[in-house]
Structure formats: C-alpha cells, structure tokens
C-alpha cells in the first residue's frame, strides 16, 4: 500500500488548498494579499500545515519558494473554471511525471460523481492513479457528487457514495464536504474503508462556528481537513491555523 506519511503528521492532515484561482476565479475569492501565491506559501510555511495543494502552474512558477518552505507539495493534476456551464467535467491538466519533477509528495485530482461525464473522469483518473502508485506517490481525490442527476450534494447517501467511490477507485485520501452531521461523517468515513477521509473547508465562515465544526470533524472518523478560504481569507491566518491544528491534533 502506498504510504500517506509524507503529507500527514502522526496520521493527521491539515492540507492548505489553493486551487480556487482556477476553480472560482480571482474576482470571487481573492483580495490584494491572497491573490499572490507567495502570500499563501508563506502561510503554509509559518503555520506548518502538513501539505500545500496547488495546480501545476503555481507549483512550477513558485517552485523555489515551495521547496524552501519545506512544506510537502500536492500537485493538482486536473481542474476547470467556473465559466464552464455544462455537466461538470474536469480533465487532466498535468501528469504524474511533471508532479514528480516538481518535487510533489502526492498528487491531487477532482472527480464529480453523478455527472454525465463521470466515466471519462474515471478513465482519466485510473491512469493517473496507476502511474502515481507505480512511483509510490499517494493520491488525494476530491470527490464531489455533482450534476443534473444529483439532487443533494451533501446528503449522507451521496457523501458516503463519494467516499466509497474514492476507495474503489484507489484513492489514498478522499476529500469530501461536511454536511454538519457528525453521525453522517462517521458513516462516510466507514464507507471509505482503508482510504482516509479529509473534509473541505468551504466558504469563509465565522471563526467560532468553524472551529466548532473542526472539533466535530476530528472526532468523527476523518483524519483532518483540506482548507482554503477559511485560512487564507482570514485576517490573521497563522494564529487561526494554530487553533485549527490544535483541534485536529495535527
Ligand atoms: P475551500 O476550503 O476554500 O472550500 O477549498 C476546498 C476546495 O475543495 C478547493 O480545493 C476547491 O477549489 C474548491 O473547494 C472547490 O469548490 P466548489 O467546486 O465546491 O466550488
């Protein structure tokens, strides 16, 4: 089995996610500070998260800064923009060989289960997963139920379907959303079997509410979280990340 120890600490994970420039666009998520990848790499470094997830372009252009930070790198190998309006689909934008050259300790990939394009995404992902494992690289799979046929993206049924699909597709870690119900998360984590579960952060919420959720998540079967906006949109990201780490026991 491929080990996830390079992107976790004591079996726990706090991944700093920074692929929103592609997924949502700079106008929606960024300000004068966090539009600069260097600002976010510095947060990763100062707050000692267990890994930083970025797309190939940022991993390439900021490779010197990322390597200097010593934060384990996860290179996302697919992505799409929010300008696209059809049934959700995300196709490869990079390869495992490129990720290895950039010094990646894992690769990341997004799949929308339930989309009409699900089978294409499975086919693309199976090639990436195979290549990554041949090179002992773990795979983190963002699995989001989405598309015309998905009525509720955050139902227990669909979230556990996502975590289970991640296990069956060969992901080492699945990243899924939290629906606010810890009992559901216990089931979702169980459905993932030996594949570990991390939870996405979501849109920026009030600090107190967010930290309460982090506590629930850490005691409901997930090994941690992959957070973006709630950290790098925070006015004091390093102090805030310390609190998150404490609750996650990272
Ligand atoms: P956040 O913590 O900012 O929600 O990031 C998690 C994440 O999975 C990102 O990696 C990704 O860009 C984004 O959410 C996708 O969000 P969605 O497709 O739901 O808009």
The major β-sheet equals: 8 strands, parallel, barrel
* Mean pLDDT value: 98
Rg calc: 16 Å
**Major sheet strand order:** 1-2-3-4-5-6-7-8
| Fraction in helix | 40-55%
Number of extended strands = 8
Low-confidence runs (pLDDT<50, min 5 residues)?
A: none
What ligands does this structure carry?
Answer: 1,6-di-O-phosphono-beta-D-fructofuranose
Task: Find the structural class using helix and strand composition.
Answer: alpha/beta
> Tell me, what's the shape?
globular
What's the total helix number?
12
Strand-residue proportion: 15-25%
Task: Measure the end-to-end span.
Answer: 23 Å
Order of helices and strands: EHHHEHHEHEHEHEHEHEHH
Give a verbal description of the structure.
The protein is an alpha/beta fold and 250 residues long. 43% of the residues lie in helices and 17% in strands. The protein has twelve helices and eight strands. Strands 1-2-3-4-5-6-7-8 form an eight-stranded parallel β-barrel. Strand 5, helix 8 and strand 6 form a beta-alpha-beta unit. Helix 8 packs parallel to helix 9 and helix 10 packs parallel to helix 12. The protein is globular. 46% of the residues are buried. The model has no long low-confidence stretch (mean pLDDT 98). The chain binds 1,6-di-O-phosphono-beta-D-fructofuranose (FBP).
Secondary-structure map:
Layout: E1 13-17, H1 20-23, H2 26-29, H3 37-47, E2 51-55, H4 56-61, H5 63-69, E3 73-76, H6 96-101, E4 106-113, H7 118-134, E5 139-145, H8 156-169, E6 173-176, H9 182-191, E7 196-200, H10 207-218, E8 224-227, H11 229-232, H12 237-248
Parallel strand pairs: 1-2, 1-8, 2-3, 3-4, 4-5, 5-6, 6-7, 7-8
Residues 17, 19-20, 23-24, 142, 200-202, 227-230 line the site of 1,6-di-O-phosphono-beta-D-fructofuranose (FBP).
């Amino acid at each position: 089995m491929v080990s996830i120890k390079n992107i976790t600490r004591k079996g726990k994970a706090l991944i700093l996610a920074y692929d929103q420039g592609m997924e949502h666009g700079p106008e929606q998520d960024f300000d004068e500070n966090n539009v600069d990848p260097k600002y976010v790499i510095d947060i990763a470094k100062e707050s000692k998260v267990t890994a930083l997830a970025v797309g190939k372009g940022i991993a390439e252009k900021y490779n010197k800064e990322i390597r200097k930070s010593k934060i384990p790198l996860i290179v996302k190998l697919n992505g799409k923009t929010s300008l696209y309006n059809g049934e959700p689909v995300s196709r490869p934008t990079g390869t495992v060989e490129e990720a290895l050259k950039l010094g990646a300790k894992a690769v990341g990939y997004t799949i929308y289960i339930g989309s009409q394009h699900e089978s294409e995404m499975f086919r693309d992902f199976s090639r990436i997963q195979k290549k990554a494992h041949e090179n002992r690289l773990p795979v983190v799979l963002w699995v989001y139920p989405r598309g015309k046929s998905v009525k509720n993206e955050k139902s227990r049924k669909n979230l556990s379907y996502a975590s289970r699909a991640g296990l069956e597709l060969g992901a080492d870690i699945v990243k899924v959303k939290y629906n606010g119900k810890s009992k559901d998360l216990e089931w979702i984590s169980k459905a993932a079997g030996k594949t570990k579960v991390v939870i996405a952060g979501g849109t920026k919420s009030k600090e107190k509410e967010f930290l309460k959720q982090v506590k629930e998540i850490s005691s409901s079967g997930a090994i941690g979280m992959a957070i973006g906006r709630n950290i790098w949109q925070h006015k004091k990201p390093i102090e805030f990340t310390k609190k998150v780490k404490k609750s996650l026991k990272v």
